[in-house]
Amino acid sequence: MPIALQVPAPVFQTMRLHLLPVQSRLEQGGFLFSRYIAEVDRNPVFDYADWILLKADDYAKQYQDYLELTDATRARIIKRAHDLDACLIEFHSHPGPHPAAFSPSDMHGFEEFVPHVRWRLKGKPYAAIVIAPSGFDALAWVDTLGTAIQLDTIDTGTEVLRATELTLRWRQEVHHGAF
Question: What is the pTM of this model?
Answer without folding.
Answer: 0.94
